[in-house]
Every structure is written in structure tokens, then in C-alpha cells.
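hi! just following up on the protien thing from before. the input was this:
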Amino acid sequence: MESHTTKQKLIVLGEVLLVILSAVLSAVGLHVFVYPAKFAPSGVDGISAMLQEITGVNAGVYMAVLNLPLLIWAFFKLNKKYVLYTVLFTVLSSGLVFLLELVDFYIYVSETDRILPAIFAGIILGVRTGLIIKIGGSTGGIDIIACMIQSKKPHVNIEKFISVICYFIICLSYFVYKDLTSVLLSIIQTFVLEKGVSFVLKDSRNAIEVKIITKNPDLLKEKILFNLKHGATVIECKGMYTDNDRYMIITIINMRQLGELTNIIKELPDTFIYYCDVTGVRGNFRWKKTDLPH
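and the predicted 3d structure came back as:
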């Protein structure tokens, strides 16, 4: 019991450190690349950047003020872990944005064009967003509103809602910067950010889900368990056209094992296989001899 408690504490500590890292990345990405290049990212970051451009007041102040009512609202409606991590991120990131300007921290000003700041801002902010989503928090703002809607109406396509709001904010930035290039840079930054988020959230293991339709699963049992060293699930099914009994074998394999498996399938008559990429894998999906029931 004590070791379990210690493990839980280490997990929480690791998650808190990731929130801190996300906040640092956020502040650096915004201060170094976004604000000097004169464009607005999506969400609260973009609104804060525009307000800073209009008023001259540091964007960190607006980030905190805009997120405060949303966080209070979320505290009574959403998961407490989600809210606490989002609060920690918001406080740290907005504070660091204010501090970096105060100490006159380095800013990147491109001597050729402004596309490089947009790309690197997208990468940094994408990694930031991916990290905090992965541990069950958020960067605040629109994400909080989206989670509220999702909790009430889980059938709603929330990603589409977020995209519409984000691009609406980007379009508004034209009236602040009076420059179409700023809008285009925002779109590039958002596109790169989405790729960065996907990269972080995608599991590091390149796995493939395989479904095999066969008459005799026993012919494949030994090859999957002992050759490929993976477990599998067998489901009884029936062919729609022939009305004959069939079996579906479902297994997860490493990408490099796909060639070996397809070669095995070629040796078996009346066997059909299809496969697709797996976004993420959790737990041990490899089979060991020690897993045999006693």
C-alpha cells in the first residue's frame, strides 16, 4: 500500500513538472516569436496579443483576467484535477509572459520574412498544448468552454466548435494589425500548432491493429503467440454473402512485424487481413510464455 502511495505521488510530481514546463514553453513561444512578429495566435493567447497591441499593457495581464472567470466557472462544473492543472498553467504562463517583458528577455526579429516566427511559435505552442492535454489539463480559454459544452452535450463535434472560434479570432486580428500578412501568419502558426499537438499526443510506439478473417484460427495461434510474441482476441462471426462460420482475430503488432505477418497470411488459404495505424498503446501488448494460465 505504501509503495502504491509513493508511486502516485511520483506521478503527480511528474505531472506538475510537465505543467511547469508547458507554462515556460508557452511564455517563451509567445514572448520570443509571436509578439515581435505582430500576429495573433488562436484562442485567449490571440485575444491577449491583440489587446496588448492596442493598449500597450502586457498580454500576461489579459491572459490572467480573461481566464479567471472561466476557471471559477469550471471549478464548480469540471474535474478538479483538470481545473487545478489549468489554474497552475494559467498563473505560471501569464506571470512568466509579464516577467519576460520586465527583464527585457530576448526576442526574435526576422531580417527576411515573418514566416519563421510563425512556424517556430506553432511548434513550441503545439508541444506545450500537447503536453498539458496529455496529463489531463488544458491551456485555458476556449478549451474550458469546449469542455463545458462536451460535458453537457457529448454528441457535439467539439473540435469543429473550437476551430470555428479560433479562426474567427484570427480573422478579427486583421482589424488590429491592419495587415493581411498577420492573418496568414496566424493561420500558419495554428496549422503547425495542430501538427505539434498531434505529434505529442501520438504514442511513441509505432503499432498496427490487425484484423484477420479466417476459417481456422488455430493455424495462426502459434505464429502470432510464439513467432510475433503478441496476444490476440478471437471473435466468432459469420460471412454475410456465404453465411459460413468464420473467426476474426484481432491483434496489435509492431510496425516492423507487418511484413512477417503478411507473409504468414499468404501461406493460408481463405484468409483475409486488413490493418490500420494505432494512435496510441497503453499497457503491455507483448505476449510472454510466463503469461500462460497455471
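Strands lie at 207-214, 233-238, 245-254, 272-278.
DSSP finds eleven helices and four strands in the chain.
cheers
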